[in-house]
Specification:
The chain is an alpha/beta fold and 318 residues long. The protein has 10 helices and 10 strands.
Length: 318
């Protein structure tokens, strides 16, 4: 399995990251265990979650981390996983943000739920304009020195804020953001490509985009509004059902047919092939789904394939 270095860190990950947002939500614990086992047994190693998963469900915040922690305890595979989690999103009762005081509380809570002594990649889930970036950077440095965190990353940052955070860390010689987690897929391209991609490339920041399959739209599962009821995530897909979205699906079908690959595999392989990208994040609620997604790492798109997909996803045609 090809391993890609994450930014300037010592972390090396396979070209597909397993998203833990469904654990304890649309995948119960037993199913989550099977998916995690299959992922690691398939030669992959990076699992991404967050403390806030799944606050929007009956399971509540911390559910995903708890499932992963229970899996570590039951199956003993902690040493086979590059464990990624995030903090900063609203957990309720004012528990949010990137203040030094809250970060100490948040990391201990995550470590407890995850049943581990160290988080491999600890990420700011979103920017916190109310806390000075220097305070956040220094707090991360302390967590790294304390051995609670190996490397740090950012998520959902604007280009200028990511660059300023990197500059502050460099000026003080502190731990720096070695990854950025943006929304990015064949449909959602503009935000990342408008400036963030260049900042990441120029500063050697790894990129692990979420929603690599656009909430499942790029699997081809949703092709009309009648299909939206197929999944609890279906309501988030409606915005993709436009002329451009359907054009992308048509070319995914075309390229997939030539390569004997599914639309999901082609969509993820496209992300893997983009400049500066380390590995897309994708989630699965069954081993069958996961097996399909893992096939994307072995798929090699030709220049012609990439050009066709770029054409289909162009906003200038919409």
């Amino acid at each position: 399995m090809e391993l890609r270095r994450l930014g300037k860190s010592d972390l090396k990950i396979a070209p597909l990251v397993l998203g833990g947002n469904v654990f304890g939500w649309t995948a119960d614990e037993a199913t989550s265990f099977r998916v995690l086992d299959a992922f690691v047994d398939g030669g992959f190693n990076a699992v991404d979650t967050a403390d806030v998963y799944s606050r929007w469900s009956p399971a509540g915040g911390g559910a995903s981390e708890t499932v992963i922690g229970n899996w570590f305890k039951a199956h003993g595979k902690r040493d086979k996983v590059v464990l990624m989690t995030k903090l900063g999103s609203e957990m309720g009762e004012g528990m949010k943000g990137l203040s030094a005081k809250y970060m100490v509380e948040a990391v201990e809570a995550s470590l407890t739920r995850l049943q581990t002594d160290v988080i491999d990649l600890y990420q700011s889930h979103r920017d916190d304009p109310e806390t000075p970036q220097e305070e956040t950077a220094e707090a991360y440095e302390r967590l790294v020195k304390a051995g609670k965190v190996r490397a740090i990353g950012a998520s959902n940052f604007e280009p200028a804020r990511l660059k300023s955070a990197l500059d502050i860390s460099a000026a003080h010689g502190w731990a720096r953001y070695n990854s950025e987690q943006p929304l990015y897929n064949l449909y959602d391209r503009a935000g990342f490509e408008a400036g963030l991609q260049q900042v990441c490339i120029e500063n050697d920041v790894g990129v692990i985009p979420y929603y690599g399959l656009a909430s499942g739209f790029l699997t081809g599962k949703y092709r009309s509004e009648a299909d939206l009821a197929k999944s609890p995530r279906g309501r988030g897909v409606k915005r993709y059902l436009d002329e451009r979205g359907l054009r992308i699906l048509a070319v995914l079908d075309e390229v997939g047919a030539n390569l004997k690959a599914t639309p999901a595999q082609v969509a993820l392989a496209w992300v893997m092939a983009q400049p500066g990208l380390t590995a897309p994040i994708a989630s699965a609620t069954s081993v069958e789904q996961l097996t399909e997604l893992m096939g994307s790492a072995a798929l090699k798109l030709t220049d012609q394939d990439l050009a066709r997909l770029d054409w289909a996803s162009s906003t200038e045609l919409a």
